[in-house]
Write a structure and sequence with these properties.
4 copies of one chain form a homotetramer. The longest helix of chain A has 16 residues. Chain A contains 3 helices and 6 strands; from the N terminus they run E-E-H-H-E-E-E-E-H. In chain A, a hairpin with a 2-residue loop joins strand 1 and strand 2. Chain A has a single domain, classed as Roll (Thiol Ester Dehydrase, Chain A), CATH 3.10.129. Chains A and B meet through helix 1 and strand 3 of A and helix 1 and strand 3 of B.
């Protein structure tokens, strides 16, 4: 997803901004029920948070290069409507809650005004040795800047 | 998974039985963090419930052939420990709750006494036209037989 | 991929045009070697040919709705260089050969002037019953219009 | 796949042995054509060669731990017949050719006497820094022992 495709943050939602990306459904995403297989939404959630962090000026790739890892410790999805091959869906992402060492990221998948799925992931902050760490001040400040 | 691999139901858990299957972690399951990518557990949950239904004498393939579909309407996973390439994990599956038109299936992923992940899926009963239906009496009875 | 992202056909290659699409590498695409897992390129080939057919004015989704299916009967990939998480790759697609009932589609994956992978897929034309058919004249004409 | 499931090498094929593993087709493997999506066969090829190397007494996991990596540099698949959800397929794997720094592995996917797909992968030998290396003598000897 290029910047052209992932528009700048557009919607305030409580204190933090959300960000929307477009994803074209692949044939590989479908199953024999003729709809998107349920685990594939978690890949889209990943795309959503990747683009969120990029828009924040804090690409996840760089975070890992600097020794900060955000593995998923919890994931939840509710499937409201079926998604089909070649649909162009929008993934809307926003920061949910942020405790000291945990980050909740909320995601919604839309298709032209229809909510298809919603859910969240919870992430830990780990260093390169897999030990829990606190997020750097710069990162927390970047998130806070988004709040205004 | 052949019957030889997926042993008959072994553990009582409350009123309903659970069933355990073995899955060998594939290289394809891993990501660059060196652990299993988080959406892959949902595929294992699928394997778990497929083998559960087969052990029940009610293979899901036959259900679809007879016009009954069980799409996932909700999924939840908690990731407790990392899973690695070539690990041999056990997926333990049991029926959680069954209301009129919803079925909850609980899953745990183990590796030699260590709980790696736990969660559940909730399923609707649909007919071939995608309309909600009640599960057949034979199916409900098959589940109830398991309760004793 | 929206039209904005997938520019109109840009390069003549022999007699037929090629088409280029951008794909952002997902974390889900990587494996523990820290590079994209080898089967994922086949999903990108799929994206490439989907966008090729759309640019041709002949979206594959519509083809299936009209009862024409193009299953893959052969696939080949050569992996020249590693692809990494968050890379923005270009998939260049063109029609290779077209016999009566077979269509060869060639694909290349590039990253800023570096060829990462190349290969092809061969497709059969089937109707809704899985029987081989000849492609419709309109489709063949659409391909031929591209040749000039 | 446990040893119980993946029987010891059973078939001589030219000079080298082949090895057969069983894989149950997952719902996740299917697409909306009602058959297995074409990239999934490459995951099965991976399972096949993993079990081949394990039977050889040379598990790939250990190879990586000892600093030897076998990335795929070429892959080829021919799809002969459709594979369906819940099918129990057999993956038959054998060593194709072995030049100094390249290893070809051949794979076939069967379902009860029907050949579903066939193909191969070609692998390079790399060390932990991604530099080409020659395979260790012990490994080459293990392969040669299989030849008798």
């Amino acid at each position: 997803m290029r910047n052209a495709k992932c528009a700048p943050p557009i919607a305030k939602s409580g204190s933090m901004i959300s960000k929307t990306c477009s994803i074209r459904v692949r044939y590989a995403d479908t199953d024999q029920m003729g709809v998107v297989y349920y685990s594939r939404y978690l890949e889209w959630f990943e795309v959503g948070r990747t683009e969120y962090l990029r828009a924040l000026g804090w690409p996840y790739r760089r975070m890992e290069e600097e020794g900060v890892f955000l593995p998923v410790v919890e994931a939840h999805v509710q499937y409201h409507r079926s998604t089909h091959y070649d649909d162009l869906v929008q993934v809307r992402t926003r920061i949910g809650e942020m405790s000291g060492v945990r980050l909740k990221i909320e995601c919604e998948v839309w298709r032209e005004g229809e909510l298809l799925a919603s859910g969240y992931t919870v992430h830990a902050f780990l260093n390169g040795d897999g030990k829990p760490i606190r997020p750097s001040k710069v990162f927390v400040e970047a998130l806070k800047q988004n709040e205004q």
